[in-house]
Every structure is written in C-alpha cells, then in structure tokens.
Amino acid sequence: MVIVEWHGHACVSIKKSNDYTIVFDPHDGVSIGLPRPNVKGDLILVTHDHFDHNAVDIVKKESSRVFKEFHGEALIDDVKIEGIKTYHDKFQGRRRGINTVYVVEVEGYRIAHLGDLGHKLSDELIDKLRNIDLLIIPVGGTYTIGPDEAWDIITEVQPNNVLPIHYWVKGLNLPLFPIDDFLVYVKKYHVVRLDTRSFKLGEYEKSIIIPRI
Where are the transmembrane segments (predicted)? Predict the structure, then answer.
C-alpha cells in the first residue's frame, strides 16, 4: 500500500507499506503562509534550489538521503529514481534556472513530480511519462506553467491519476491561480475533492485528486 499526502504548495510525500517515506520539495511553512509539513523523509527529493521547495531541514531525519537537482538514475532503498533536467521558465533557465522532473518507482507504481516546470514537455519526455500512475503537476501559473498549459500536458501524457500542486490556497502569500482556474479545462477525468490531505494510490482511476490543505 502506498499513501500519497499533500503538504501544501509543491510538497508531497509518498509512504510505502513499510512506512519508508519519500518527500518532494519541502517548504518551511511560515515563508509562504502555510502550515509547516508534518512529515519526515527517508528520501528527500528537491526539484530546484528555491526557498519554497528546499527546506530540507524541516523534513530531514539523521538517516535521510537527500538529492537536490539530481539528474540521472539511481536505486535508493529499493526505490528507483530518475531525475530529468528541465527548466523553470520558457527560456531554457535564463530567468529562473533549472528544474528537475523526478520519476520514481515505488511498489510497482510510477509517480512523476514535475516540480516548478515552466515550459511544455519535449516529445521524449512525454513518451517517458505516458500512462504514468500519478502525475504531480503545477497548475498555478506565474512561476510555472499555467492552468491551460498543465491541462495540455495531461492530455498528452494521459496519466492514470493527477495530483495538482503549486496553486493558490487560503493563506498562501504567492500570486498563483486557484484550483478552479485549472478545473475549467478538465475533461474525461473525474474530479475528486477529498476531506483529508492523503489518499491511497490505486484507489482512484482517471481522476484529478484534490486533497484538503
């Protein structure tokens, strides 16, 4: 059993059945106006070194393994990781730097976290992500792809399920679009609004999953 939990903004944790936990893009809470992530990671993956994504000390244990902007492949504690270099903007990083797309394989599931992706995907990356089990994708615009661009990527990749991230919620002090600005584009997917922060991977099919923050 794999449990996915959203901790606000771009911070997402993936917990395996043995409680081994992967944390993506931790924030410190106070800097962006949200509660601090209440999770500790055995493996911490940072897509890019910006303040709202790299608060490693908040989620780190003494034994944690940390990968920042890792590009390549690795096998860590039975978790297969691939980090793929992308950009935080539409100008090959000249404005906001690089970004990493992480693809991890956990207990038979393939999960992709797109970080602060700022541009359309290459055909090669679309093929790599096609039919992935869970696509974690920014939808809030301003610093990343916007709602319409996010939907275009989803249409191309055809993931089984989608977890939107990096959008405006109450308290967030960043100028992002709210989730409803993305949902107007959604077709042929169920929209599932949860009463909790977490869900079990495999519980939904062809769904846009929106946890409560």
Answer: none
The tokens 């916007």 sit on which residue? 146
Confidence band of 93 (pLDDT split at 50, 70, 90): low
Using the predicted structure, report yes or no on whether residue 96 has a pLDDT greater than 90.
no
> What are 181's two structure tokens?
């600005």
Give the amino acid at 54.
N
* Helix, strand, coil tally for the chain in percent (to 5): 15, 35, 50
How many Å apart are CA 13 and CA 25, to the nearest integer? Answer: 9
Q: In terms of residue numbers, what domain contains 201?
A: 3-210
Strands 161-165 and 109-113, by their bridges, are unpaired
Element of type H or E holding 57: helix 56-59
Counting the structural domains of the chain, the total is 1
DSSP code for 178: B
pLDDT digits (tens, 9 = 90+) for 115-159: 999 999 999 999 999 989 999 999 999 999 999 999 999 999 999
Q: Give the CA distances from residue 166 to residues 53, 55, 159, 171, 187, in Å, rounded to whole numbers and listed in that order.
A: 10, 16, 18, 13, 21
Write the CATH number for 161: 3.60.15.10
